[in-house]
Amino acid sequence: MQQDDVRNGLFTPSAEDLAGVEAWFAEYDALAARGAVEEIAGLAVFPLNLATDVPGGFGAVRQWDREEFVRVMTEVMGGGTAGTETTSVRTPRFLTPNLVLVETEATVTVEGERQSMRYADLLVRTADGWAFQTMVQGGWGHGWPAATRG
């Protein structure tokens, strides 16, 4: 967990580091199953960065404050994900001891319909533990303006 754990410019996470990220996602998944959006918001650092794409083939980015996150995720999660069958394979890539990019490949089954997705989260280590700060997933950008350079 210390900066001196970085060798040749690359951080190699310990079993404890990996377990910490796995525990964070276990907590997140349990909260999502209950639809506990306010508690999930407590696991984030705001403003929260989002990157997605919009119809037409361009990327889009936004920042959400806590209020917007709670509003949108309450609409998305409804009463929670407990009625869905979800399998997730998460691959954490530690950039430093305090920054980890986690790619998730998930399959969700709702009423017999399967949907596969891939998304990523940037977690940052805080004094209170891991928190997500950036969410990246395609398909959320309906109605969002396309990103522009400069």
UniProtKB/TrEMBL annotation:
| InterPro entries documented for this protein | NTF2-like_dom_sf (IPR032710)
SUPFAM superfamilies, per database record: NTF2-like
UniProt name for this protein:
SnoaL-like domain-containing protein
The organism encoding this protein is Planomonospora venezuelensis
